[in-house]
Amino acid sequence: MNKSEQRDLANPFGKLTFLVVDDFENFRLSMRQMLRSCGADKIELVGNATAAIQYCSYNHVDVVLCDYNLGEGKNGQQILEELRHKKLLKRASLFLLVTAETSKEMVMGAREYQPDAYLTKPINRAVLEKRLGSLIQQRHTLLPINREIDHENYPKAISLCLEMLPKQPRYKTWLMKTLGELYMQVGDLAHAQKIYDDVLAQRELSWARLGRCRVLLANKHYEEAINDLRALIEKHPDYMEAYDLLAATYEQQGKLAQAQRVLEKASEHSPNALLRQKHLAQVAGANQDMDTASEAWRKTVNLGTYSIHDSPEHYLSLAQSLSDLSEGSTEEGGPEQASEALNVLSKMEKRFPEDEELPLRSKIIQSRVHAGQGNQREAQKLLSQVSSQLQSSGDYSADTGLDYAKTLFRLGRDQEAKDLLAQLAARFENDSDIIQQIENLLDEPVGYRQKIKARSLNRDGIKAFEDGDLDTAIDTFGKALEIVPDHAALNLNLVQVLLKKYEQNPGAAGAGLVQACQQRMKRLESLPEQHRQYRRYRALSQKLKGLSA
C-alpha cells in the first residue's frame, strides 16, 4: 500500500466531492459542518432540484446528500430519477436520501430508483460518519469494478469481480449480484444461471431468485418463471421488480389480461412509479379496459409534473382514452369526461409549446370529443382546420395520420379515411407496427363502445361454433358484422361457419350458403398480402372455388 492509499484510508472523506441538497439553509450549513468534522473538504450546498441537477451536469460528484421534500418542484426521488436517466452519476457515486418522512408511498417510490441509503432526520455527526463511512469504504474497494462498468468494459469487470471474490468476503453478496448482472449483460445465460443457483443453494435471496427468473424468461421457460415469480411476490409483496418481470412474462405469452392484473397490484403497493403507471395504461388500453387505462394515464400525467419522463404523449393518450369513454355518452359522466379531455389537451399545449405538431394532434382529438357529444358543427369545423394544415405541410407523423383517420371514420368520412390509410401504408410499408395499427383501424373503424360490442359478439360466435351450434354462430357473427362490416377475421369466421353448415347440407339447400360465402369473400378482395388474415383468406378462397367448380 502506497502513501496516497494510506492517506485515503486514514481520511476516507478527504478526497471526495460532496453535494448537499436541502431547501433549508440551516440544515445545509449544519450538514457542511458535520462533513467537515468527518474530514471532508470539497462540499457544495444547493437549495433546490434545478441547482442540484445543473451542478451535477458540469461537475463530478462522489456523494449526494439530498432531502426528499424540497418544497415546490422536484423532490429528492425525482432528482435521483433524473440523475440516473441522464447518467450524471457514476456507478461509484453515492446518493443518500435524507428525509423526515417515512410514509410507505414515499419509501416505495424512492426505492424504485435505488438510493444507496436513507438517513432519517434529525441527523447527528456520529450517525453520519458511521453510515457514510461504511459506504465510502465499500466505494473505495469496489471502485475498479464500477469504473470498468461505467466504461462498458464488461469482460474486464467480470474478471475483476472473480479476482476480488476470494479476497473480499465482506462484499461477496455485492460481487455475486454484480457478476450475475454482468453475465446477463454480455448474454452469457449459462454463467448467469450458475451464479444465481450457487447463491440460492446457500440462501434464498430475492435478487438471486429474480435473476434466475430473468434467465428463465430469456430461455423462454415461461411457466417455471411464472411459478417462481408468483412465489417471490407472495413471500415479498413489496418487491416491485418481481411484479414488473411477471407482467413482462405474461406479455411475451400474449396474456395481456394477466399482465394487467399484475401491474394493477404493483401500482397499489407503489403508486408513485410513473413508468409503471404508463405501462399499466398501455396494457389496459390494449385490453380495451378504458376505465383503467384513463385512470392510469391520469396518474401518469400527474406524476410527470416534475419528472424527467414527462411527455406530451401521456396527455394525448389520456385525452384519447377519455374521448373513447365519453363518445356517445351524454349521461352518466360522459360530458364530464369530454370536458376533462378538452382541459387535458389545453394544458398539454401550454406545457409543451415548442412541439409544432401538438396543436394539430390536439385539434384531431378535440374534433372526436365534440362529435362524441353530438356537437357535429364544432367537430367538422376543427376537422376542416386539420385538413388544411395537413395539406399545406404534407409531412406529419404516423401517429398523427392514424388519429386523423380514426376521426374521419367517426365523422362518417370513410373514403377519406381509407385513402389516408392507404397513403400511410405506402409511406411506412417497412414498419410492421404501423402496418398493424392500420389494419386494426380498417378492421374496426368504429367507436370504443361499438368495438367492445362487436368483440363480445365475436367471442360469442366462436363459442357457439365450438359448441356445434352453427345457426347461433351464423346469427351472432352476422350481428357483429353489422357493426364492423369490413372486419377481415369476422368475415372469415362467418365464411368458415357457413362452409361447415354446407358440409352438412351439400345439396340444393346448400347453394345459398355458398353464395353467402362468396358475398363475404368479395368484401375482402382488396385484402393486402401483408395482412395477418391473408393466408386464411387464400385458403378459404381455394376451398370455395372447389365447391363452385
From TrEMBL:
PROSITE patterns per the UniProt record, alphabetical: RESPONSE_REGULATORY, TPR
CDD domains per UniProt: REC_TPR (cd17589)
One GO term (biological process): phosphorelay signal transduction system
Domain of life: Bacteria
SUPFAM superfamilies named among the record's database cross-references: CheY-like, TPR-like
Residue positions, PTM 4-aspartylphosphate: D67
Keyword Repeat in annotation: no
InterPro entries reported for this sequence: CheY-like_superfamily (IPR011006), Sig_transdc_resp-reg_receiver (IPR001789), ST_Response_Regulator (IPR052048), TPR-like_helical_dom_sf (IPR011990), TPR_rpt (IPR019734)
TPR repeats: 240-273, 454-487
Alphabetic keyword roster: Phosphoprotein, TPR repeat
Every Response regulatory domain range: 17-136
PANTHER family: TWO-COMPONENT RESPONSE REGULATOR, TWO-COMPONENT RESPONSE REGULATOR ARR22
Name used for this protein in its record: Tetratricopeptide repeat-containing protein
Native source organism of the sequence: Marinobacter persicus
